[in-house]
Amino acid sequence: MKDKIALEEHFAIDLTIEQSKVYAKPGVWEKLRSDLMDVEQQRLERMEQSGTAFSIVSLNAPGTQGIPDPAAATHVAQRANDTLAAFVSRHPRQLGGFAALPMQDPDAAARELQRCVRDLGFHGFLVNGFAQVGDLDTIVYYDDPRFNEFWKTVEDLGKPFYLHPRDPLPANARAFQNFPWLGAPTWAFAMETSTLALRLLTSGLFDRHPRLQMILGHMGECIPFHIWRIDHALQIAPRGNPAKRPVSAYLRDNVHITTSGVFHTPAMLLTMLTVGSDRILFSVDYPFEIHAEAAAWFDTCEISETDRRKIGRDNARALFGLL
């Protein structure tokens, strides 16, 4: 397939690049660093070689959410967004942008999102897990009441948001102590992000703002595979759950799922059975994953050509209003 659209594709600026060093295996950091900093050369060449016509690019994780000082986070977000906007302006047929936001300050985040959508033409925003606020050990989740007006702004703008993983804080990750190989994408990312997504889905957020659209990567961060038990448990023992509908209903109406970093046909088929092919979007997770590997799988996996077209391009065109 020669005209795929990908939307979990990362870059870095000088102020955030060192955040990604922890995710590099020994001996590969220099290559990963180069790939994150390069937006206009090898990235575009690899996209063309793999049949990816358009990428929506976002700042590396944890990005601005890992900067506890709100003023510093706002400065880095603006720098990153202006840098990305310059890349997009030079390659508008190949690149789009997700805004980086200073979630430590919901009012500043709302203002920056408005600027990025209205002035820079960005397609929404990507937010990593949770935000550290004031110091490295104090965190805030996005279901917190302080974000009430922020989510109203998001809904009014009509742009989706991508809930992207980050590692849990060490204090919240005792199960991973002495087992560092189970952290990050092996397991910790999915467990952390699926929990945070379920917090949003069961908080009443999508009842208050039914037009909100959330994107989850990595084939839904395991939620589609566990959805029957989630719905069943909430039905028989709700324990004050404020959501008005089953989680599966929000998955079908308010959530889109990408293939980023999960190039596995059985996972794809189960996700299609759970949410339908209209809710799935192709993605790579470049440069942490490889365009060629993603394309080799997606272009030949055992799904219909109609579904391949939807997932590879048409669903993204509809969600983002792309030509």
Question: Could you explain the architecture of this structure?
Answer:
By secondary structure, this protein is of the alpha/beta class. The chain has a single domain (4-320), classed as Alpha-Beta Barrel (TIM Barrel). 44% of the residues lie in helices and 12% in strands. Strands 4-7-8-9-10 form a 5-stranded parallel sheet. A 3-stranded parallel sheet has the order 1-2-3. β2 (52-59), α3 and β3 form a beta-alpha-beta unit. 45% of the residues are buried.
Query: If you consult CATH, what is the topology?
Result: TIM Barrel
CATH superfamily: Metal-dependent hydrolases
Mean pLDDT: 97
Given helix and strand content, the structural type is alpha/beta
- The radius of gyration computed from the alpha-carbon positions, rounded to a whole number of angstroms, is 18 Å
Order of helices and strands: EHHEHEHEEEHEHHEHHHEHEHH
Number of discrete domains: 1
Q: Which CATH class is shown?
A: Alpha Beta
Descriptive tags:
323 residues, alpha/beta, three-stranded parallel beta sheet, TIM Barrel, 13 helices, five-stranded parallel beta sheet
Short précis:
The protein is of the alpha/beta class and 323 residues long.
